[in-house]
Specification:
Strand content: 15-25%
Oligomer: single chain
CATH class: Alpha Beta
CATH superfamily: Aldolase class I
Number of domains: 1
Mean pLDDT: 98
Bound molecules: 2-phosphoglycolic acid
CATH topology: TIM Barrel
Radius of gyration: 17 Å
Number of strands: 8
Order of helices and strands: EHEHEHEHHEHHEHHEHEH
CATH architecture: Alpha-Beta Barrel
Distance between the termini: 11 Å
Strand order of the largest sheet: 1-2-3-4-5-6-7-8
Length: 248
């Protein structure tokens, strides 16, 4: 069975004072049986990882190389050195703002594995692609390009994030989410060890809120969520984590 994971992506939000939100989560969910992850900005990773409790910490991106002349970048090894356990790679904001290709995302995922991190690999279609009926082709292409061969349930999480649902308050229908997740699971199984593909956590991301989390977590092949805006405040994220804890 895939592990259930509630992942928060703070994006370019958060200063030292925001670490209190992670402390509240750690206290509230001390005995939780789901995995809880916060990916703060790189400036807070080390301090966030020092907070006692069971909240895992991740980066939001990493460079494919271990070190070198790459001004402004952070390597997977550096994130691991700060106490991170995960790193998001291929978020659509990186694919758009930094023109990242699936090939680069693939190399970043390999770097994450090398550093002992779990790679949270993001994929998702634009509204235009969905309206043209191209969702499955886009997902297949991104999966084939971004997820390295040999991915294991222990080192890879795949996040399905329709680009048009991120930060917009819009989400696909529950049927559409279930269809996308079933397609992703099937595709991963066709490329990797079947048991590994079936053990990988598949997250839905894009406008997950306390009000829609339970319905999303009830869907087949949805093992958790990657949450942006609603992960910034412990109160909102706790409601989502609680919905995941209650899901069967
Ligand atoms: P959102 O962002 O929850 O604010 O829509 C999700 C994400 O980009 O991971």
């Amino acid at each position: 069975m895939p592990r259930k994971l509630a992942a928060g992506n703070w994006k370019m939000n958060g200063v030292k004072a925001s670490l209190g939100e992670i402390r509240i989560l750690a206290e509230t969910h001390a005995g939780s049986d789901v995995d809880i992850l916060i990916c703060p900005p790189a400036t807070l990773v080390a301090q966030a990882a020092d907070i006692e409790g069971n909240i895992r910490i991740g980066g939001q991106d990493c460079h494919a190389n271990k070190s070198g002349a790459h001004t402004g970048d952070t390597s997977a090894e550096m994130l691991a050195d700060c106490g991170a356990n995960y790193v998001i790679v291929g978020h659509s904001e990186r694919r758009t703002d930094h023109s990242e290709t699936s090939e680069q995302v693939h190399d970043k995922a390999l770097a994450a594995w090398d550093a002992g991190l779990i790679a949270v690999i993001c994929i998702g279609e634009t509204l235009d692609e969905r309206e043209k009926g191209e969702t499955n082709q886009v997902l297949a292409k991104q999966l084939a390009g971004s997820v390295p061969i040999g991915a294991l349930a222990a080192n890879t999480v795949v996040a399905y994030e329709p680009v048009w649902a991120i930060g917009t308050g819009k989400i696909p229908s529950f049927d559409e989410i279930a269809q996308a997740h079933s397609f992703i699971r099937g595709f991963l199984a066709s490329q990797n060890e079947t048991s590994e593909a079936h053990g990988m956590s598949l997250l839905y991301g894009g406008s997950v809120k306390p009000s829609n989390a339970s319905d999303i977590f009830a869907l087949n092949n949805v093992d958790g969520a990657l949450v942006g805006g609603a992960s910034l405040k412990a109160k909102d994220f706790t409601a989502i984590i609680t919905a995941l804890e209650a899901s069967t």
